[in-house]
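Page 42, continued from yesterday. The earlier attempt failed because a stray header line got pasted into the input along with the sequence. Redoing it now with the clean sequence only.
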Amino acid sequence: MEVMRSQKKASSALTSSNGVSTLTLYRSAPTLEVRLEDFERFAVDRLLVLRGISDGLARGKKPDEMDKLVTDLWKAHMRHPQASEVNNKDIISHFVLRLVYCRSEELRKWFLSMESTLFRYRFRSVNSDVHLSLMTELGIPYKIVSQKEFEDLRDQLNLVARSANQPLPTPNGLYKVSFEEVPELVATRKVFIQKGYAYVALNQVVSFVVPHFRSHLSKALVLTNRKWTSMIREQEKDRLTPIVEALATSYLGPDYSQDKEVGEISLKDIDQVARTSFPLCMQHLFNTLRDDHHLKHGGRMQLGLFLKGVGLKLDDALAFWKAEFSQKVGAERFDKEYAYSIRHNYGKEGKRTDYTPYSCQKIILSTPGVGDHHGCPYRHFSEENLRAALGKMGVSSHALEDVIEKARNRHYQLACTLTFEALHASSCDAGINHPNQYFSDSQKILKEKNMSTD
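This time it went through. Structure tokens are written below.
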């Protein structure tokens, strides 16, 4: 796959004849040219699908709900203006994200899980001809059960199907494979076994195809990491490397540099809105600043840009920080050492860049040191401290246990989402992806409640 800057279109050699996306095993990178803008755009679209799947799994959606979710996500994000390019987008986006997520064990684990889940649900939606083609390509030894063999075993097959609450098997679409190929089905007693063979119905084929797909992808990710480390990263340091390294932590929603829907907040209201509408990460920083009259650089950046995003104007920001810091370091030292960075965050110093508030992803991946208070409480707090902080916010004991469970299982954004839902008695189907989104959604709910009581 060659990435280029020209406007030449990618070859459509990978597409099906009717332009409909077909399922592929991603065995080798495509031999075509890809525009640089498509390299990034296709990857972002696929990432939206994978993150949607991750959120669905973390929320405990049922298989039929996941099936609909995956279908909707794929239709929403993996379309292409040219029908003939749908397959190209699928394959190119997979290989770009393979580069992005090969670079650490944690990234590989997440990508492997999400891509396997995506493959599982897409596999279920294609016909038996595609199933057989993929099984052959994967080298899975299977035999099609003949009509005579089916009739001989009909009673036993029906008995197993009924006991496992499965549809009764039919002579069309029944295969036999080595029982070692289907440990999941054997363990749950969902297949009939005879002479070392498991008799697998068409709707069960996914159980032994997905592990093969996962195994291949796992090995491929390790090999891709070796190539990335030894060659690609250095060769592409001025072109692809910055894109690849940014994608894994990229935030794909609004930047919240200034939330126009919420408007401005004033210093006289800041304590009230902090109690009612700040997410835990910002409440912790805000309360620490009020108590200690100081925050280290990481905390100042995380809280300062958040306050900018929720509508605190520069003059008010300077007054707010000075009122706190002057109690610890004095007004003169504040003006000399700290005021500049606040003006810099608002684009009034240095390169005059209009800096945006930190997303959840950026905060979660931060590494607070000793004496730091920034970061994500759901990840960086001990369980005891997290329980105490949530209790102080007013999260009920029942909801608190759900939040703790999600945090324990490393679903940090979902833990924050559950906190939001518990405190506002309102669902948040989109999930919390940004602290300023939390604030904005909270303010909308509180204003609607106030209007309804007037």
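Notes: Confidence is low (pLDDT under 50) at residues 5-21.
Reminder to self: strip header lines before submitting.
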